[in-house]
Design a protein that fits this description.
single chain, five-stranded parallel β-sheet, 23% strand
Length: 151
């Protein structure tokens, strides 16, 4: 199984990056991080639209796109693992998670997503969202292989 995480912004060295790297090391699956960033100072609406374009361009054409969005479906860790297992059994070999910037995702990005996933009703910094997603991928892998990490 291959995963892509397309996300707005660049992670800087530090504890968040270290946690991301730790979960990447633990995973048996390949997880590629594609970071996009608009460097021009744009009004908020134009910036969100540009970030949406960049994110859509970063999602591989063969990937099953999943948007991380507060309006998406919140799943338990076991339900998330079951969804991943189901998508794998359907023959999906590449899943792309899309994480927007401070103002979220555009309607275009949400419309192209085949599933919308919420990490819960709280607002999280998008750098934390990456680590939380990586941890949940690892937890799902452990659930699917009966590893004791998830108890």
């Amino acid at each position: 199984m291959q995963f892509t995480v397309a996300a707005v912004g660049r992670m800087k060295s530090g504890p968040i990056t270290e946690q991301w790297e730790e979960f990447q090391r633990r995973l048996n699956w390949t997880v590629k991080l594609l970071e996009v960033e608009e460097r021009k100072k744009l009004p908020a609406a134009q910036l969100k639209a540009r970030e949406g374009e960049l994110l859509l361009g970063a999602v591989p054409s063969d990937a099953f796109p999943i948007a991380l969005d507060s309006g998406g479906q919140a799943l338990s860790s076991k339900d998330f693992a079951a969804r991943l297992d189901g998508w794998m059994n359907e023959g999906r070999s590449h899943i792309a998670f899309v994480i927007g910037g401070a103002d979220g995702l555009t309607g275009d990005v949400l419309a192209k997503a085949e599933f919308k996933l919420s990490l819960g009703p709280m607002t999280w910094p998008h750098m934390f969202a990456r680590v939380m997603l990586a941890e949940q991928l690892y937890r799902a892998q452990c659930i699917m292989t009966n590893h004791p990490y998830h108890r």
